[in-house]
Write a structure and sequence with these properties.
The structure holds 2 protein chains of 2 kinds. Chain A is built from 13 helices and 2 strands, in the order E-E-H-H-H-H-H-H-H-H-H-H-H-H-H. By secondary structure, chain A is an all-alpha fold. A two-stranded antiparallel ribbon of chain A has the order 1-2. In chain A, helix 2 packs across helix 11. The chains are: A mainly alpha, B mainly alpha.
Chain lengths: 310, 364
Amino acid sequence: MIIGGIDIAVLFASLMVGSVPILLAALGETVVERSGVLNLGVEGMMIIGAVSGFIAAVQLDNPVAGFLAGAVCGALFSLIFAALTQGLLANQVATGLALTLFGIGISSLAGQGYNGIKPPATFALPMGPLRDIPFLGPMLFRHDWVVWFSLFMVAAVWFVLNRTRAGLIIRAVGESHEAAHALGYKVNRIRLLCILFGGAMAGMGGAYISLVRVPQWTDNMTNGVGWIALAIVVFASWRPGRVLVGAWLFGGLMVLGPNLQAAGYRIPVEYLSMAPYLITIVVLVVMSSGRRGRATGAPAALGQNFHASR
Amino acid sequence: MLRLEKRPNPSVFWLWATPVLAVALTMVVGGLLFAALGSNPVTVIRTIFWDPLFGANAGYFRAQLLIKAAPLILIAIGLAMGFRAGIWNIGAEGQYIIGAVVGASVGLAVYPTENRLIFPAMVLAGAFGGWAWAMIPAILKTRFNTNEILVSLMLVYVAEAILAKAALGFLRNPEGMGFPGSRNFSSYPAARNFDLIERTGLHWGGVTALAVAVAAYVLLTRHGIGFQIRLAGQAPRAARFHGVSPTRLVVFCLGLTGALAGMAGLFEATGPGGQITENFASGYGFTAIIVAFLGRLNPLGIVLAGFMMALTYVGGSLAESTMNLPAASIQVFQGMLLFFLLGVDVLTNYRVRRPSGAAKGAEA
């Protein structure tokens, strides 16, 4: 099916691939923020995941090892944030910014000598005859395992947050840490685990950029994707299902540009490169307008540190 | 395990001792990092922190220090006002870029007219450009309650795209034989931000930075709006009862930062930078965040912090050229400094106690 010179199946397929980094990072951040922690270091954790995943994949010649390394290093990196905000009660906004600045620096330090190398390829899952279904085949059944993993994680995060005891505790900590503390939950320990989960997801999302999307290592290659992921969490009103909608919306807008150009539409590069950010702003305005205060669905204790004084 | 006990009031001693402690810790851990990279840590630390001030060619490096410190101080003072009031403008980099582009456009529009009013007009235009760019998150925040952190940051990427458009398109030097970049201001005396005293690095940006620091200090400690800023940050509820208008504060703080960042961009483009190029922005807007915190969000502290951070830039590039240190290691070094600063800040607001001693104290 071709509309206006663009093959819809191919567009949707590239949308699903293009949205994976945002989706993974935004899902992780959703859990972090539901526990009441605002980690603005998503961009930093993603770039760390991108570089460490790339190095591991190239060294071990195995893309799966790359994704694992990205997740582990992302989590380890988020440990800095956890130690500062949960242990030393540092300001979350400032610490998150520091994480991003530090991550960009350390990743370009670590990535020296890896520029211009091609990583081992991540292949599509064998789907047998499903691949060859007209329209649906190229649209849905020629993706690699990470695409399916990210979709599985949407369901998993939704289930854990809304249908399990663990999710109830996470939400309690995020809505009122005083009450959760009074019930005997270890607020800072629960938040620490959520931060690590967020770090792992962001790291894996970063690894997907350097291993599949681009695929190579260049300095500062995440280029704001982590910040867009943060905006998606707001857009989604902190709900995993809506995170998927948001990620696909943005993934679609990001791949629409190159597709339009390929189809022969002449749009200046500058406008294409600023479009995702402008659209993010518009979406943020629409989502936040007219709903002053807490009605946006933000966790009540978001961004506040907890110190048990008694 | 140690235990934290909240101080009734922040410790004045630790308020000023923590930046020093953080710098010392960064030197130690940074030294370990440099050792891991295969350099002699003592030599690297000396190259970064000592040689630019007192080593060979110190005259040149001291001038560089002033050149780098001026934009950092200008931007950080604006940021600090906002941070104090709990308004997080982290898009100063974008405001810096737009200020430079708008200011330079004014100058280049009248090229090659010679008039002594051209440079002041450009400075005003730069301040206006940065102010207008900062008004976008400010108005969205006050009108639609949109998160200013995300909006101001997104606008950095938009500004970078506009900068690319300017360097390759509407500001490109018509006599540049197709090379990207605007006309060079060093060959346009009326619009040039020259050294006020030859070879000291003191240009109008440096003078403005110092004047703004003093003015901001007075504003913050002696003026009504300064009181409102401090009150809104420390006790938002009390501020509401006092009649502080959040809208006014957001517009004031973001606008001030934008105007200062825009001016800094213009001073940089017409002085040390020389022209508008695609990669003219060098991250001052982000480094200024570190400067603001290192200076304890205090205008006079920021002046010291600005020079400290300029030292890591100047010494860093010296270490880069003489010791073959990778350029990114300085960025790591600066990031580390902010981490340590935020970490040791716990000592300002909390006492560290051993639990057994505290328990005894509670019984007594």
